[in-house]
Amino acid sequence: MESNLDFLLQLCLILGAATLGGFISKKLGQPEVLGQILAGIVLGVATLEKTEFIESIAEIGVIFLMFIAGLETDVKELLDSGKSSSMIALGGVVAPAILVFIGMYFFTHGEMGHALFMAVISTATSVSISVQTLREMNQLRTRQGISILGAAIIDDIVGIVLLTFVVAAVKPTEGMSVGSTILHIVTFFGIAAVAGFLLTKLIKLTEGRFNIDSQVVTYAVIVCFTLAFLSEELGVAAITGSYFAGVMFSMTPHRHKVSHEVNQIASVVFTPVFFVSIGMGVDFKAALSALGIGSFFIILAVIGKLIGCGLGAKLSGFDSKKSFQIGLGMIPRAEVAIIIATLGVKLEVIGDREMAAVILMVLVTTLITPSLLKIAFHNKETSQA
Predict the structure, then answer these.
(1) Which residue among 265, 304, 333, 344 is least enclosed by CB atoms within 10 Å?
(2) CB-based contacts of 216: which residues, under 8 Å, 6+ apart?
(3) 18-59 residue pLDDT tens
């Protein structure tokens, strides 16, 4: 009987560590998310195993996190920021890709396949950490926060297409064609647009006729999970589907109720488990084994995002401070980078050393971003005071 309930003990340990880590981090003037990730690293070092159950809870956590981000998005502001988000995303793909390709090409003594794959890995952005940090500082609904969200979604799509091109070039017999990939992406956004239109119309029709207020949160979660599943099935990240589900409900009169109640559900269990699980997934031995190539890769990848996204923001009309804040918000890499790297190892395009370098980059960018964002936005507030 005890073995069947082991997952409960593990969940208690993770939630306890998340609470303690978040509390200490907040007391030290840092975002709670940083403390939760560090708590996960401690649990990982203590050899607490990340089971399939915990991974599933963590996956729900990041889906809820991006759903809430969608609910808190001002749609008019998001549409208005379309041009700036596109420019930020373009800069955030081109600059790191070029820097990392050139750097890795010389570092690996002309290994074209290695350099191309590492370049694609460097373009991936994982904004879940930035989103949570900005939410804690009440900055998610600023123009910078909305631009970071928009740019990250575009980044994901461009990254998928780039990956398809690279796989086709390096291993022509593997994976889907570029045309098929683009068709899947277009299909997802078509489904999302139609679903959003029908949802808002349906809620307007039922308003006043039926009392759906008591069940609206359940309906919202169903739509969130359905779109997350569909987006994953069509080759777009699940978090993109959940974000658009949130955007849909942000245009309804139930926005605040759904946002408040889903946030209550998510913040108690799911999102803390997600951030702790990031720390638990860190393989220190692998990361340390690639300290040389890893450090070089991190420097190029971070500088690429700062320059590319910062320049894109500057050209979009942001001042230097806000452009720098946006660049910082686009630094983190996490699950997308690891997924692409794992594919590279499977296809034998990159080796274990490059995989370890990616793990090191994920660790470093995950840990530095919350504190850097805190400093950047604090300085902004101080200068305005």
Answers:
(1) 265
(2) 254, 257, 258
(3) 999 989 988 887 778 888 888 988 888 887 888 888 889 988
184 in a structural domain: no
**Residue 143, in any domain of the structure:** yes
Query: Where residue 140 sits, what CATH number does that domain have?
Result: 1.20.1530.20
2 — pLDDT class (breaks 50, 70, 90)? very low
Q: What is the 3-state secondary structure (H, E, C) of the chain?
A: CCHHHHHHHHHHHHHHHHHHHHHHHHHCCCCHHHHHHHHHHHHHHCCCCCCHHHHHHHHHHHHHHHHHHHHCCCHHHHHHCHHHHHHHHHHHHHHHHHHHHHHHHHHCCCCHHHHHHHHHHHHCCCCHHHHHHHHHCCCCCCHHHHHHHHHHHHHHHHHHHHHHHHHHHHCCCCCCCHHHHHHHHHHHHHHHHHHHHHHHHHHHHHECCECCCCCHHHHHHHHHHHHHHHHHHCCCCHHHHHHHHHHHHHCCCCHHHHHHHHHHHHHHHHHHHHHHHHHHCCCHHHHHHCHHHHHHHHHHHHHHHHHHHHHHHHHCCCCHHHHHHHHHHCCCCCHHHHHHHHHHHHCCCCCHHHHHHHHHHHHHHHHHHHHHHHHHHHHHHHHHC
**Residue 228 resides in a domain:** no
